[in-house]
Amino acid sequence: MKNYKWLFWLVMVTPGFAQAALAKSQYEKQDPPRELTEEQAKVAANNYQKYCALCHGDNREGHKNDHAPSLRSKSLFESGVPHSILRPMSYGRHGTAMGGYLDEVGGPMTLDETWDLTYWLFWQSGAQRVKLSENPVHGDVPKGAKIYQQYCTTCHGENGEGITAPALFNPSFLAHNKDEFIRYAIEQGRDGTPMLPFAETLSEEDIDNVTAFIRSKASAAKITKVALQAIPTPDQYVINPEGENAKFELDQGKYVSSKDLHAAMQANKRMVLIDTRVTSVWQRAHLAGSVPFPYYSDIESRVGDMPKDVLIVGYCSCPRAAAEYVMEKFNDAGYNNTAVLYEGIFGWMNLGYPVVRAEGLEVIDEELEGH
Ligand code: HEC
Ligand code: HEC
């Protein structure tokens, strides 16, 4: 009986494997990027834990918070190094929980650190790079739209907004990635994740068609940056210092709704609002009066800057992971008058409440060379 079962699975699984392996072998291999020195690798590993593990997981497995993708899938590192890793890491994917980490846009990492972390992730993955064409993928867009509706919407959403998977019609996603990178992901899937290799279900032509359909969503996709604003100083932390103290009925003892928070802001209540996301995204848009207090900052040494006699409300976009993490640190330090914005900043905006947006959008037109 045992042997019979084994045979059954072998037969079930082999054709799929054979096909995927065949498709992969069509790709020419590419030399690996530079290796890191011991010191660079140590810094990169630390940076990963400090900045990325919150959402991508302690072991790069992904999907810890807000459906952040796996950062150890071989197929990603075969096709994505350096640009498809470096660009989202540096500039973020606007409109998702993935912010930019490069200092130039207000993030905490230097250019060298972003390159080293890209290569560190590559070496950790054990992948071998393949050579992908830079040329556009041609296909029949209306046919691709049908394939998309049939096979992709359950996870990626009807409008490519991402449900349990990345937002495929997102302008930054489309600006950062070449057609062949997208095609490769569809064909090979992302090993170790729910993204299956569609080489097993779709013809090459239909993979081209759906790739062309996704690309057709990129109208004016450009990588942009904004003029950096001054970060508030401690004497500016309290909103409405002369007002009455804000006080909320907190759901589960910690959550404030967007509706209640907005009403308190309208009523000029006294409070502190902290933005716990990577600071580059505070630079692009934030709640009026909020102070950047990113989850990776040295929280223990910074809490002392905060007044103790006022409610401190934290928010993020993931939609609560970073804010809860930071508010727990506050609680540990003896600050118990705290709250977390339940819907996060995207939920807040979806409900039509206002944010302060940066001015001076500038297109970054650089070609990132090997480094
Ligand atoms: C607050 C949560 C969060 C943090 C922290 C975070 N990410 Fe992400 N990341 C995401 C999400 C969500 C996505 C997918 C967004 C989308 O496209 O819908 C993503 C996407 C990515 C991608 C694109 C992967 C792919 O499959 O194309 C890379 C690369 C990446 N992140 C690297 C990093 C690195 C490196 C760090 C740390 C420096 C980091 N991220 C920190 C949430 C996060
Ligand atoms: C069962 C859910 C599911 C279905 C169905 C699905 N995907 Fe995915 N897809 C995912 C997940 C989850 C990821 C992120 C994987 C990871 O963690 O790296 C992903 C990743 C991708 C990526 C890479 C995105 C990036 O940021 O690098 C592309 C492109 C993609 N999918 C296209 C498609 C297309 C096209 C279809 C339909 C033919 C499809 N997917 C169907 C779940 C799904």
UniProtKB/TrEMBL annotation:
Sorted UniProt keywords = Electron transport, Heme, Iron, Metal-binding, Signal, Transport
Q: Where is each Rhodanese domain found? A: 267-357
Q: Which InterPro entries match?
A: Cyt_c-like_dom, Cyt_c-like_dom_sf, Cytochrome_c550/c551-like, Rhodanese-like_dom, Rhodanese-like_dom_sf
PROSITE patterns, per database record: CYTC, RHODANESE_3
| Gene3D superfamilies per record | Cytochrome c-like domain, Rhodanese-like domain
Q: Does Transcription show up as a keyword for this record?
A: no
In its UniProt entry, what is this protein called? Cytochrome c, diheme subunit of cytochrome bc complex peta
State a single Pfam family of this protein: Rhodanese
Family annotation (SMART domains): RHOD
Q: Which SUPFAM superfamilies match?
A: Cytochrome c, Rhodanese/Cell cycle control phosphatase
Q: Which residues form the Cytochrome c domain?
A: 39-125, 139-218
